[in-house]
Structures are given as C-alpha cells and as structure tokens.
Amino acid sequence: MAERTVRRHETEGEIMGDWFQTIVDIEATPGEARGLAANILDWLIADGFVSAERTDCVLGADAGHAPGTRYGEAVEDEDPGLADVWSNGLRVTVGRTVFDAGQGEPSAVTCPHCAAETPLVDEHWSLIEETWALFGGAVNSWAEGHDEPVACPSCGRTAPVHTWLWADDCFAFGHLGFTFWNWPTLRPEFVGDFSRRLGGHRTVLVEGKL
Length: 210
Ligand SMILES: [Zn+2]
What we know:
Blueprint lengths: L18 E7 L7 H14 L43 E11 L7 E3 L6 E3 L9 H14 L6 E3 L6 E3 L4 E2 L4 E11 L6 H10 L5 E7 L1
Antiparallel strand pairs: 1-8, 1-9, 2-8, 3-4, 3-7, 5-6
Bound molecules: zinc ion (ZN).
C-alpha cells in the first residue's frame, strides 16, 4: 500500500508551520482547467489581489504570485506582517490532484449511495488503520489517474473514491486548485466569486498546515 498522505491531528501543541487555504474546483474537466486558471488569474491580477509577476513565494512550486495592493479586501482581517513572510503567495495547480489538509487525520467519510458515515479515527483522533486501509490506496492512487472503487462497509456497494464525502473537507479531488499561502481567513464573498467565475462550478475550500 502506498504511504499515507495524512499524518496526525493537530491537537498536540502548536507547531509553527505554513498555513494554507486552497479553493478547489471539483467540477473542472482536465481539458478546461488551464483556461479557467488563466481566467481566474487575470481577474485576481486586474483587481489587485495578487501581483502579476511570478516570484519565489510559494511552497510546492517554483513560483507563485505575491499578494497584490488590494489583497486585504479578500480576507477577513488584513495581516500587516504578511508582506514579511516569505511564503505568502498564490499557487495555481492545474492537473489531476488530491488536495489534502496536510497535517491531521480524515475523521470520517460518507458513502454516496447510502449516506452511512464511516468513522476513520478513534476517540483519541488516532487513525483506525483497518478502516483507513479500505480507502488509503484509492486516495493515494487517484492523482495517478486511477478511479479505484471502494466498497461501503455499510451497504456493500462500491463508488469511486472521489465521489465519497470527506468530513471537514480534508480531501478534495480535482484538476484545478488555488492555494493561498499564509493568508488570513479568506472572506466567504471572495471564495464565492471563484465559483461564479468558474462558470458556477462547485468549489471546496481545503484548509490546512504543513
Ligand atoms: Zn453505503
């Protein structure tokens, strides 16, 4: 089995890390993701949310877009210290990706057929290995192009892993994502604008820490 992508729940003391919020378009097809990414970027640059220049300001990619002059209008509480944080930019991801919350275990997953919820952690937030084993391989191989069906422990029917409903939005499966590194909490109106500008596609906000 492939190595798990999730590690532990963040209750064991605060560790300084890089916080991120990723807006994932879960409906964009592989063919339209690049064009949609360009449209969104045009808007974010034109409105001053991010700068046009690509610089070394994100994790997981060579370059991203640093906060623009009007970035404060995208967030709940503007952080004057953000400019001094090296990793403060927008990373745009195009391509089949499992967007995950970094640290933390997925707490539960719900079957798309019968709506039964399967817990994945025990009362100490430790992963229930036997149960996770039903899903882990499919989660980890999705990005490589596999749509492994997973059988529901309750009803026995199978469904591809990306159609299950993951608690706390700990996973989002998609071909297009916009990751804001270390930005304060994004305003719901700003997040909503993405969906509108993505042609009404449903989006999932995955938040986490590395
Ligand atoms: Zn079921």
